[in-house]
């Protein structure tokens, strides 16, 4: 690890100008970074910092350490943030998580993550192919079409949001089409115990959860103990104080800060904005890898809705197009394990078509479907986002 880490930092310093500036600003040389503990000397790079870097120096903010022609794919996530994929198998490193969930050659798997611009669909397809599975690239939507294909092909596995798997099972019941899905790997939204239990009762006997980000890929996954997320050995995950950025001891809650051990893109000390803690007790499965206890909230103002981040900044940019709206607030609710997004607006003098216009603009600008509802009033200090969800 020591030699590899020093060589990686040296490569990124030499080939990624923005990372070289981070090192210089911290008064560091590559020789100063010899162990994972030394990484704490590098300030945390937060998502908002990444967005600003890319805006100033598009498309990758000076963090790409190879020519863009060497990449396999490029993605765009909300922010916007552009993410590169190197031309290597399973670049996002999900194979270990999928194997731990019981996926193996011979499985036919519905991949219900999106394939349009954002990386989730392709990243999990890469992982499934590395395991030897056959992939049905379903993406999001067209539930009846997906269910009929799952029935016809004898799909045995599922990758996607847990709430979407429930929706597919409900659709299959409504259509009278039995499914053979026996295992699922779910991520991008919390998995409440009640939802895991319901999926298992309906025949999906293995439901395992993972944790990762669009920038970093696989950062943790459940084993058969289903007691936290094992950190894979090809990434360094630290739990850090949200103010100082310094690592915290096991058991204390802080921000998940990640260093990805690849030489394509300088994701060193990247602050995910997620809160977690390292488990203090060894796992009963026998794996000795560090283990995250689960998702414990967010550092900043962004929230996840249906597996995608929604930033107050995005909403402000959207609503700046509609000066006739005097006040507004996005409200997130959850019913029957499904997220709903409603934009409440105060616009007493606006045209009747305003709600439909905002909703259509939001689909294009935010990639979110939402209901727009006119209300009589909102508090002067109403937050941009009000999240009423509970995870039980």
Write the layout of secondary structure elements.
Blueprint lengths: L1 H14 L1 H9 L19 E2 H10 L14 E7 L3 E6 L8 H6 L7 E4 L8 H12 L2 E4 L5 H11 L3 E4 L1 H14 L7 E4 L6 H9 L4 E8 L3 E5 L7 E2 L4 E6 L13 E7 L9 E7 L14 E2 L10 E3 L2 E3 L1 H8 L7 E9 L2 E9 L7 H12 L5 E4 L10 E3 L5
Parallel strand pairs: 1-13, 4-5, 4-6, 6-7, 7-8, 17-20, 18-19
Antiparallel strand pairs: 2-3, 8-9, 10-14, 11-12, 12-13, 15-16, 17-18
Protein described:
With 392 residues, the protein is α/β, with parallel strands linked by helices. It is 27% helix and 25% strand. It has helices at residues 2-15, 17-25, 47-56, 95-100, 120-131, 143-153, 162-175, 193-201, 312-319, 354-365; strands at residues 45-46, 71-77, 81-86, 108-111, 134-137, 157-160, 183-186, 206-213, 217-221, 229-230, 235-240, 254-260, 270-276, 291-292, 303-305, 308-310, 327-335, 338-346, 371-374, 385-387. The strands form 6 sheets. It has a 6-stranded mixed β-sheet with strand order 5-4-6-7-8-9, with helices on both faces.
Summarize the structure.
With 392 residues, the protein is an alpha/beta fold.
Indicate the mean pLDDT: 93
Strand residue percentage: 25-35%
Classify the helix fraction into a percent range. 25-40%
Number of helices: 10
Q: What is the global morphology?
A: globular
The description of the largest β-sheet is:
6 strands, mixed
- The low-pLDDT segments are none
Number of strands: 20
Secondary-structure element string: HHEHEEHEHEHEHEHEEEEEEEEEHEEHEE
Query: Pairing-aware structural class of the strands and helices?
Result: alpha/beta
Biggest sheet, spatial arrangement of strands: 5-4-6-7-8-9
Q: What separation lies between the terminal Cα atoms?
A: 40 Å
Q: Over all CA atoms, what is the radius of gyration?
A: 22 Å
């Amino acid at each position: 690890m020591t030699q590899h880490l020093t060589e990686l930092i040296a490569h990124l310093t030499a080939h990624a100008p923005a990372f070289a500036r981070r090192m210089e600003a911290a008064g560091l040389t590559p020789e100063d970074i010899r162990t994972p503990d030394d990484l704490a000397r590098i300030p945390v790079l937060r998502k908002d910092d990444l967005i600003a870097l890319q805006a100033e120096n598009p498309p990758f903010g000076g963090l790409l350490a190879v020519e863009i022609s060497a990449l396999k794919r490029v993605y765009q996530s909300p922010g916007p943030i552009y993410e590169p994929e190197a031309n290597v198998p399973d670049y996002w490193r999900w194979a270990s998580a999928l194997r731990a969930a019981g996926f193996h050659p011979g499985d036919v798997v519905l991949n219900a993550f999106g394939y349009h611009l954002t990386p989730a669909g392709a990243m999990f397809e890469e992982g499934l192919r590395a395991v030897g599975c056959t992939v049905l690239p379903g993406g999001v939507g067209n539930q009846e079409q997906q269910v009929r294909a799952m029935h016809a092909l004898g799909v045995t596995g599922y990758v996607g949001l847990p709430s979407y798997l429930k929706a597919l099972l409900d659709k299959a019941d409504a259509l009278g089409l039995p499914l053979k899905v026996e295992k699922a790997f779910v991520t991008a939204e919390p998995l409440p115990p009640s939802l895991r239990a319901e999926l298992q009762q309906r025949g999906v006997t293995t439901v395992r959860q993972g944790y990762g980000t669009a920038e970093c890929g696989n950062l943790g996954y459940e084993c058969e103990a289903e007691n936290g997320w094992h950190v894979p050995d090809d990434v360094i995950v630290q739990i850090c104080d949200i103010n100082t950025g310094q690592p915290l001891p096991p058991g204390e809650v802080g921000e998940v800060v990640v260093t990805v051990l690849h030489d394509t893109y300088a994701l060193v000390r990247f602050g995910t904005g997620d809160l977690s803690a390292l488990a203090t007790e060894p796992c009963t499965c026998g794996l000795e890898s560090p283990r995250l206890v689960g998702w414990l909230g967010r550092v900043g103002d962004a929230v996840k809705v249906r597996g995608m981040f929604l930033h107050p900044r995005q909403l402000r940019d959207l609503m700046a197009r509609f000066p006739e709206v005097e006040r507004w607030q996005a409200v997130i609710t959850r019913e029957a394990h499904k997220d709903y997004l409603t934009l409440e607006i105060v616009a007493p003098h606006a045209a009747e078509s305003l709600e439909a216009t905002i909703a259509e603009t939001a689909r294009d600008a935010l990639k979110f479907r939402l209901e727009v509802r006119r209300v009589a009033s909102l508090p002067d200090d109403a937050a941009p986002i009000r999240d009423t969800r509970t995870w039980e």
